[in-house]
């Protein structure tokens, strides 16, 4: 059935001044996205930037949050009018970010539009977002997002067709004027890909041996993927996946897999008789949290551990080409790379900086302290992939999470790590504060408390080795004596006020100190940044709003 009512026509519009993509796409309050032409302007600006998408094929899907359905119907109208000939859309408009990335590659599509504000809350009062991914599956690089932003400032018309709503509730094909819309099962292809990456036979022995796991889908997009993979294909019993039904408002929570927001999982894993393995993902399925029985694993440690054990999984049967981490991610993985003799790259925050390195074959394992881990299989961070990576290692070593982490620390030392977020700051005040910090960081050399002294400082600048493009002002680093570091940056994903992130890390090499409480281990660094920054004076705050 053809749902077309009218061929494409041009509609006049006025530009919006706030359509600058941040760390991961354009992210705003739902109410902003609901304003007349807000979605249309942004999508048209994508086509004004990349006219070659006309005649091509696009993948579309989102994390199912409030406004997902309406946004997709609007996007269909604009992209078809702009000449896209084939649209591949997840059933019910659902696609996790890594599944969308895989579909782009698997179907040889030209790009993908992913609707998500990731770990930000959803619902009418919550957040919404649009991300553009490229032909390689990964996020559009900075040069493209910058060009799209330039176009949003001057867009005066957009193209659209008029059509009835396309039925996304069942799989199948629909003709929308000149374009073919194919609604597909969002899970199947992705689950098949996972079977090629890991030893499913070995993992299937875990439930047989009585090992239990719990996976918290946080009422977000990974529920259907997790049920298919962990319960149906790997044989973990029904009920292993909790909060499995994707909800438009994620049940009122933040779908952010950290100890604060995934407390249901945490409480379970810290209690007596807990399952042996726990994990969670975020709104759009690209993050992962790993927690053993009474043993949370910091994302930076997880990256290091996966790197050290990559040789155990089929995905890395050809070895590690190289590893990349974002700058604030701890240096735990650096020590693994050094021991393995594998090149290490340090990039700015955000997955878009990893894509070129993977395309060039320079790296095939990447990670961020914010619970993002991924390989070259999709060019995105991938929550379920990381969980399977862990399961595969546990299955073939028959070790517990606690034992495997302890063994790792014995070899490499333990890097204690925390992030302190100061949220809801006044934007002007925060950006003035940060500019001053960038200018004056050098003056902090020699300052210190309790034997911790600032040895050197750096405003992080990154030169992409494949394009020579420079990304500057990517955060301030203070290096301290004794393998400790403080990093400061402003978040690029929030929608209310500004967020200052402070990252703390300290290397501990004395085995008897490995079991120290993380906050205690970092108390000296905490005291140091509070003294150096004098946040009460500069930003009117003293304590972080979130510590993870
Ligand atoms: C945060 C994280 C960053 C991550 C980004 C997108 O960005 O720090 O590591 O890549 O979110 O993740 P920022 O600018 O707020 O610090 V997701 O799961 O939202 O796609
Ligand atoms: Co995410």
Can you characterise this structure?
The strands form six sheets. The chain has a seven-stranded mixed sheet with strand order 2-6-5-3-4-9-8, with helices on both faces. It has a seven-stranded antiparallel sheet with strand order 20-21-24-25-26-19-27. The chain has a five-stranded mixed sheet with strand order 11-10-12-13-14, sandwiched between helices. It contains 18 helices and 27 strands. With 548 residues, the chain is α/β, with parallel strands linked by helices. α2 (38-49) crosses α5 (142-152). The mean pLDDT is 96. The protein folds into three domains: 2-186, Alpha-D-Glucose-1,6-Bisphosphate, subunit A, domain 3 (Alpha-D-Glucose-1,6-Bisphosphate, Chain A, domain 3); 190-412, Alpha-D-Glucose-1,6-Bisphosphate, Chain A, domain 3 (3-Layer(aba) Sandwich), CATH 3.40.120; 414-547, TATA-Binding Protein. Cobalt (II) ion binds at residues 118-119, 282-284, 286-287.
């Amino acid at each position: 059935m053809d749902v077309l009512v009218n061929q494409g026509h041009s509609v006049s519009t006025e530009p919006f001044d706030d359509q600058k993509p941040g760390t991961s796409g354009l992210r705003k309050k739902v109410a902003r996205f609901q304003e007349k032409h807000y979605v249309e302007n942004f999508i048209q600006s994508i086509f004004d930037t990349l006219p070659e998408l006309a005649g091509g094929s696009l993948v579309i899907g989102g994390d199912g949050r409030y406004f997902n359905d309406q946004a997709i119907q609007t996007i269909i109208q604009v992209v078809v009018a702009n000449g896209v000939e084939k649209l591949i859309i997840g059933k019910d408009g659902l696609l996790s970010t890594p599944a969308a990335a895989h579909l782009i590659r698997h179907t040889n599509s030209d790009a993908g539009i992913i609707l998500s504000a990731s770990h930000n809350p959803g619902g009418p009062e919550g957040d919404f977002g649009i991300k553009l991914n490229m032909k390689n599956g990964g996020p559009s690089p900075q040069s493209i997002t910058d060009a799209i932003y330039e176009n949003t400032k001057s867009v005066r018309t957009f193209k659209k067709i008029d059509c009835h709503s396309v039925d996304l509730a069942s799989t199948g094909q629909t003709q929308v004027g000149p374009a073919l819309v194919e609604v597909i099962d969002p899970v199947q292809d992705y689950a098949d890909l996972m079977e090629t990456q890991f030893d499913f036979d070995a993992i299937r022995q875990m439930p047989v041996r009585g090992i239990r796991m719990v996976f918290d889908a946080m009422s977000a997009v990974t529920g259907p993927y997790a049920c298919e993979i962990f319960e149906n294909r790997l044989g973990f019993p029904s009920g292993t996946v909790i909060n499995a039904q994707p909800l438009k408002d994620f049940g009122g929570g933040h779908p952010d897999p950290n100890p604060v927001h995934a407390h249901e999982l945490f409480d379970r894993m810290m209690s007596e008789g807990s399952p042996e393995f726990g994990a969670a993902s975020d709104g759009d399925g690209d993050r992962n949290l790993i927690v053993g029985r009474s043993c949370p694993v910091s994302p930076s440690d997880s990256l290091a551990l996966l790197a050290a054990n990559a040789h155990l999984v089929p995905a890395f049967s050809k070895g590690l080409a190289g590893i990349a981490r974002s700058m604030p991610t701890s240096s735990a993985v650096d020590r693994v790379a050094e021991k393995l003799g594998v090149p290490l790259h340090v990039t700015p925050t955000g997955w878009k900086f990893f894509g070129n390195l993977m395309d060039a074959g320079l790296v095939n394992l990447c990670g961020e302290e914010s619970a993002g881990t991924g390989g070259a299989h999709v060019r995105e961070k991938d929550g379920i992939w990381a969980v399977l990576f862990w399961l595969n290692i546990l299955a073939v070593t028959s070790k517990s999470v606690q034992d495997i982490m302890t063994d790792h620390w014995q070899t490499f030392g333990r890097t204690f790590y925390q992030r302190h977020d100061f949220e809801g700051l006044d934007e002007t005040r925060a950006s003035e504060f940060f500019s001053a910090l960038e200018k004056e960081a050098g003056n902090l050399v020699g300052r210190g408390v309790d034997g911790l002294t600032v040895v050197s400082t750096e405003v992080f600048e990154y030169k992409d080795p494949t394009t020579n493009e420079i990304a500057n002002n990517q955060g301030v680093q203070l290096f301290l004596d004794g393998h400790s570091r403080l990093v400061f940056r402003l978040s690029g994903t929030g929608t209310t006020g500004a967020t200052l992130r402070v990252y703390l890390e300290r290397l501990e090499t004395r085995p008897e100190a490995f079991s120290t409480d993380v906050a205690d281990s970092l108390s000296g660094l905490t005291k140091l940044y509070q003294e150096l920054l004098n946040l009460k004076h500069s930003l009117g705050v003293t304590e972080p709003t979130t510590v993870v």
